[in-house]
Write a structure and sequence with these properties.
It is found in: Membrane. Keywords: Membrane, Transmembrane, Transmembrane helix. With about 300 residues, the protein is mostly helical. The chain contains 13 helices and two strands; from the N terminus they run ββααααααααααααα. A two-stranded antiparallel ribbon has the order 1-2. A hairpin with a 2-residue loop joins β1 and β2. The termini are close together.
């Protein structure tokens, strides 16, 4: 029996077979492929809650789980933003949207046009940067966040700012307001863009909203916030994009300040809770012996 010092090599029968490069432990050929396939399966499973949310959200006009425009006389709409006026003595979205021009109108449209692309672009970014394991974490967080929001929308339906703005304009003009489902629902900034371009792009885009009373909390802010806490491109600089989205929701009269703030806080809280639960489960299921990690540091032969 002898003790040999290992220099980036493998000890075999008292002699050292050295290598120019590479780790001391080289996994067997099939293991990387098996590990990769397992990660792909994990990604698919993690995306199920999020995809289920999108499906239920999209068919809400048919399954009628969340309130629709036609239900406005049958439900109680909550004005969660009332405390904003109590504390600040103003509605922040009114101040933000009052300072408008064409450039800002277009800038506010960009995050909305990017919204449904984010859950595809970000996982693709993680894949091509070699961080496949973070895709599962992102989709789990997205799924949990949106189902919590779904429950809030069910029991705390809230109307967006543009709805009250429309009612106020009709009252000032002395005209009778049309039914809610016939109103323009694109919001102030996007209505101006439609008039500017002569198109009804945003009118048609928001006209088919299957869940109209879901202002609080803001899903538009929650999605990029999920990216930020997972592992954002550019690190903390990505916070600028989150703030851009939050500003756009206020500027376009689609959300109140409270909608954006609560959405961001909720994502952070759910992220910490999910990490805590995940760590506890990992500790309980930790294997007694992880064979690939077993290395004899002294190389006794």
């Amino acid at each position: 029996m002898g003790i040999h010092k290992q220099t980036n090599g493998i000890v075999c029968n008292g002699s050292t077979a050295t290598h120019d490069s590479g780790p001391a432990y080289t996994p067997l050929g099939p293991l990387p492929r098996a590990h990769y396939c397992r990660q792909i399966v994990d990604v698919i499973k993690s995306a199920i809650p999020y995809l289920a949310f999108l499906a239920i959200y999209g068919i809400n006009p048919h399954v009628h789980i969340l309130p629709r425009f036609e239900d406005v006389n049958c439900i109680h709409l909550y004005n969660v933003s009332a405390f904003e006026y109590t504390i600040l003595h103003c509605q922040v979205h009114e101040l933000v949207s009052s300072l408008h021009n064409v450039v800002l109108d277009f800038l506010s449209a960009v995050p909305y046009l990017m919204h449904y692309a984010l859950p595809v672009i970000y996982p693709a970014f993680l894949y091509f940067t070699g961080r496949l394991e973070l895709i599962s974490r992102f989709y789990w967080l997205m799924g949990i966040t949106m189902w919590v929001m779904f429950i809030i929308w069910k029991f705390l339906p809230t109307a967006p700012p543009w709805m009250y703005d429309n009612m106020e304009q009709y009252a000032k003009s002395g005209t009778t307001a049309p039914p809610l489902h016939l109103m323009h629902r694109e919001g102030c900034a996007f209505a101006r863009l439609d008039r500017l371009t002569g198109l009804k792009f945003f009118f048609n885009m928001f006209g088919g909203n299957p869940v109209p009373f879901a202002s609080f909390p803001s899903g538009h802010v929650a999605w990029p916030m999920c990216i930020y806490v997972t592992s954002a491109p550019g690190g903390r600089i990505f916070a600028i994009y989150v703030l851009w989205v939050a500003w756009a929701t206020l500027y376009s009269c689609h959300h109140y300040l409270s909608d954006a703030v609560v959405a961001a806080l909720m994502v952070v809280i759910l992220y910490k809770i999910s990490n805590y639960v995940s760590e506890k489960l990992r500790q309980r299921t930790k294997p007694l012996c992880n064979l690939p990690a077993v290395v004899c540091s002294l190389n006794i032969v």
